[in-house]
Amino acid sequence: MQTVAQAWLVYRLTESSFMLGVVAFCNLAPVLLFSLFGGVIADRIPRQQLLIGAQTAAMVQALVLAVLTLLQWITPGYIIMLALFLGVVHAFEMPARHALLAQLVPRENLPNAIALNSSAFNSARFIGPAVAGWLVTLYGEGVVFLINACSFLAVLAGLVAMRLPVTTEEHSGSAHERLLEGLRFAWNQLHVRAGLIIISVTSLVSASMTVLMPVFAREIYHADARVLGYLLSAIGIGALMGALRLALRTTTAGIDRLIGLASVISGASMIGFSLVDTYWLAIPVLVLAGFSHTTTAASVNTLIQLLVPDRLRGRVMALFSMIFIGLMPVGSLLAGAFGESLGVRATITGAGLLCLAAAAAFLVLVPRLEVFDQQ
Question: Which of 29, 110, 166, 191 has the least C-beta neighbours within 10 A?
Answer without folding.
Answer: 166
